[in-house]
Specification:
421 residues; alpha/beta; FAD/NAD(P)-binding domain; six-stranded mixed sheet; five-stranded parallel sheet; 30% helix; disordered C terminus; binds flavin-adenine dinucleotide
């Protein structure tokens, strides 16, 4: 079938943990037959695997070295890439509207465009939710995009250099870092930052004693860290954080963030040179009211288990921006958690959905297979929770390679799942 004419056109908006494997999977499957044309749209030109952003923020990973170019992947796998932000949709005409792209000087590189589709998949992820807490937007940095992670790292470096210079001049010098939210992201970020500070001397910041002069405080509103994981895992992680000199304060609700402190509801004031906000997420605000599609309070597009949005059978949503029912959770109204595993498994299913649609067969429904969670606490340790067995593992003093292997194991399992093995 000649590409560009009769081929069934699938447009995917967002090339992250869900959208990118969907684009490559679909394009590879239909490349020879030419019966499906795939277009991926992303606001950025390059992709960085989001679960690695805390390593970028801590300065332990260079985003540039780990990013991949969408146009190059598109060329290799046989799909089309279009850069630009999508914020509007015309369902009656079946077109998405792609914003203009500008260079750093504000010059327009690409004009606004319209893209027609037969099937649309929205996979734009999530952004940090400040829950309206005063001062968060001005003074705290979320770790949601490579740019934010790099900004956090630059601020961390500047604060460390300032404190080092003060100490070199014989004055008091200290860096106070506060991380708000002790979910997996906050916990991992705290551990990674501690690893960075332990290497300060190697980078000329030799006046700072990592344990004494760089204070890392993790603040959590829930009664314990890692609320979605088991008590045993949380206890193991808390023990490891204590060994990393991270001050963990649970049951403290943040009420205000200022330029130099974090205030909690119990009246405590924690000094802060640098604040990371990792306390919650929501889908982008523009999804609410997107041409009449149903969304929930977190702006997520409400879908059925086929991942079709409830008001338009040709518009699908997956990953963090979708509120997909999770019947296996056994709780009324439960929706799938915002995790890379979910997004990847959903992408694998949508590849089969396209086949089913082309053949006029019933669409597959999504069932999440939880392969567990891995919380990496930097080079020294990690904790794992395996959902099926309830088994958990805590390793101390393991070399980084082992953590890498362990991460790889989880990814491998996810890949097996995608292949239906
Ligand atoms: C620091 C950190 C650590 C994490 N660690 C883990 C982990 O260990 N395990 C785990 O399972 N999950 C982890 N997560 C969560 C995981 O990253 C997300 O659940 C996952 O990335 C969601 O995939 P997605 O495809 O929905 O969105 P994303 O991967 O966020 O991709 C969204 C894509 O959409 C693009 N986009 C956004 N808006 C627009 C627009 N308007 N127009 C066009 N394109 C747009 C973005 O540029 C991006 O490429 C972590 C998250 C963070 C922040």
């Amino acid at each position: 079938m000649p590409v560009g004419t009769l081929a069934y056109h699938v447009v995917i908006v967002g090339g992250g943990a869900g959208g990118l494997p969907l684009a490559t999977g679909l394009a590879r499957r239909h490349r020879r037959r030419g019966d499906v044309r795939v277009t991926l749209v992303d606001v950025l030109a390059t992709h960085v695997w989001k679960p690695l952003l805390h390593e970028v923020a801590a300065g332990r990973m260079d985003a540039d070295a780990h990013e991949v170019d969408y146009p190059a992947i598109a060329y290799r796998h046989g799909f089309t890439f279009r850069q630009g932000a999508v914020r509007a949709l015309d369902r009656a005409r079946r077109v998405v509207l792609v914003d203009a792209v500008h260079d750093e000087e504000g010059e327009e590189i690409l004009p606004p465009r319209e893209l027609g589709y037969d099937m649309l998949v929205i996979a734009v992820g999530s952004e940090s939710n400040d829950f309206g807490v005063p001062g968060v937007a001005e003074h705290a940095i979320p770790i949601d995009t490579p740019r934010e992670a790099e900004r956090f790292h630059r601020r961390l470096l500047a604060a460390s250099m300032r404190a080092n210079a003060r100490k070199a001049a014989g004055r008091a010098g200290r860096v106070d870092i506060v991380i708000i939210g002790a979910g997996a992201t906050g916990v991992e970020l705290a551990a990674e930052i501690r690893q960075t500070t332990r290497m300060h001397a190697a980078y000329g910041l030799d006046r700072l004693d990592p344990a004494r002069d760089v204070r890392i405080t993790l603040v959590e509103a829930a009664p314990r860290i890692l609320p979605p994981l088991s008590e045993a895992i949380a206890a193991a992680a808390a023990d490891l954080l204590a060994r990393l000199d991270v001050d963990v304060r649970v049951g403290r609700t943040v009420t205000r963030v200022t330029s130099d402190a974090v205030h909690t509801a119990d009246g405590a004031v924690v000094a802060a040179d640098l604040v990371a906000w990792a306390a919650g997420i929501r889908a982008p605000a523009w999804l609410a009211g997107l041409d009449g599609l149903e969304t929930n309070r977190a702006n997520q597009l409400v879908t059925t288990t086929t991942l079709q949005t409830t008001r338009d059978a040709d518009v699908f949503a997956l990953g963090d921006c979708a509120a997909c029912p999770w019947p296996e959770a056994g709780r009324e109204g439960a929706i799938l958690p915002p995790r890379a595993q979910v997004a990847r498994q959903q992408a694998a299913m949508v590849v089969r959905t396209v086949d089913a649609r082309l053949r006029g067969r019933p669409l597959p429904t999504f069932r999440f297979r939880d392969y567990g969670s891995l919380v990496s606490l930097g080079e020294l340790a990690h904790v794992e929770h395996h959902a099926h067995t309830g088994w958990h593992e805590q390793q101390r003093e393991v070399p980084r390679q082992s953590v890498g292997r362990s991460r790889q194991r989880l990814r491998d399992r996810a890949a097996h799942d995608e292949r239906g093995e």
